[in-house]
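If your schedule permits, I should be very grateful for your opinion on a structural question. I have a record of one protein: its chain in single-letter code and its fold written as discrete structure tokens. Would you kindly read the sequence against the tokens and tell me how you understand this chain to fold? Thank you for your consideration; the sequence and its tokens are set out here.


***
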Amino acid sequence: MRPIQRWLRFDPVLIVTLALLSATILVISLQRSAFAALEQQAAVIRENILEETAREIALEIRAAIDEPAYDTLQALARAELLRGGVPRVLRMYQEAIHKYPQIDRFFLWSEETERRVPGEVLFFDGDRAGFTSGEDVDASPPAEATSTASGTHDAWEAFWRDPELGARIFRGMRAAGASRRNYTALQYQLGDCTYDVLAHHYWLEPERNRYFFLLGYAVCVERAGPRLLEKLYGGNRADWLNQSNRGERLALHIFDEHQRLIFGSPRTDAAIAGRVSLPGRFYPARSSLAGAAPPREWTVQVSSAAPAPAAMRTQGVWLLGLSVLLILVALAVAVRGQQRASELARMQADFVSHVSHQLRTPLSLLTAVTETLALDRVKSPERSALYLEIVRTETKRLSTLVERILEFSRVGSGACTYQFEPIDLPRLVRETVGAFARKPAADGFAIQVEDDGSACTVTADPVALEQALVNLLDNAVKYSDEAREVTVRIRRSAGEAAIEVEDHGLGIAPAERARIFDRFYRGSGASRQRGFGLGLAVVKQVVQAHRGRVTVESAPGRGTLFRIRLPLQTPGRRILGWVRFRTAGASRQPVRPV
């Protein structure tokens, strides 16, 4: 024991080596734990985003299923049918049968059809003209039908019989009429098809003792789902799922109530997926609905086809190969990396939370309004107009939020492609300012354009440059406070053109000017305004892509001036510069610049 103690006491190199090895093991352990926690958090965020995407798709599918009921069965008024509305019904059916692939056939019943084919409804599916040969149907219209509406004879020739299904629908609707409801939903099994049937009863009097017209449609459940989903997401339409270009492929699968795949590639197991259920019946759920089909439920799944990133898990293994002599450097790098990773995770979480918060309000309003309209509680035209205005306003608000999210994705990827061309800068600035001044956000503002009159031609992408100018104008309007004046100037000097946007509002503190062009950064004066902190980041990216620079001059309480400087196009290099820019971007598919 004594020799060992004496050896340890007089061998400082071994002590230092053991200390460094212990520190290395501790750092690696902490680093791996931190990366594992960060990876788990990233997985949760990705799963939430996939689930939100699946929910959006489910709402779109449900809207497509409900649309025929509102578009066709409510399209004709009672007075139109009383005046002889069969030709009008036929025109409506001819348009709708091609618009809605899920509809197998439309049908109608009236006193006229009862005289022609008692105890049945007549069908229209767009592929038949006249009645099927061999069926005992009088195709010629009666005298009274010809006298009430011109063209009725030709209209009747487009309808045909299916005696078995027509009689079953007639009996079912006749029995459902006892409930005195406006709509009836039934289900029938005929051959290899399960039919969801929806009909609208047109009553003669307010007491609803007798109806004189019946309009409806039948949907073959086994065929309707694939048809509808192929129209919505077939071909190249599903490519919108992968427009972010992040190296991660998303897949869309839709399953029926028996978990059978009805749309999408053959089912594959994914590490991360978002799933949302929706009703699979082919008619809207209404309070005034008599009868119903058994409940069916579809499942929308949006999954990541790429495996979970493993870069973070390899960091700890990589640290094992570091030399003991570099442990202090490795420790400093690890601490800094952990700080940056934590900051990025926090920014991502804040971004998701901010977007979710801003989406929740319009979605809640839209849900409340649509439920009120669906329950048929709105009786006056004034209230209906008010509710429709709410739907229009909140839908526009949702569209704006989606555009901001797409803007974030494009700025983050850095994959924008610009289509450069010679443009007249003063003209572009005047047109952009004029369009912005007509927006509601600029209401009450005096926006002036000052031009020294000199010609300014620059090589630029007009759409991207317009976006940068709109972002500056939007900032000027947001933070002008009570000084509702904005000035835009166009200048030319020393081989470059300048665009200045000046307001007289809140201003920017000197300590914040260095960070205002960073993504997600919002200064102290921005807390009262909505936004994601991306507008100036977009401006900087666009200006740098145009070989220019953007600067800011500001003082708190005195306003802010942003200045964009772009190189002028000289006559000697106009064609060469144009060819060079066009050739550089010709090998890539252009995307919408920001």
In short: The longest strand covers residues 193-203. The two ends are 74 Å apart (CA to CA). Residues 457 and 571 are 10 Å apart (CA to CA). The first helix runs from residue 2 to 9.
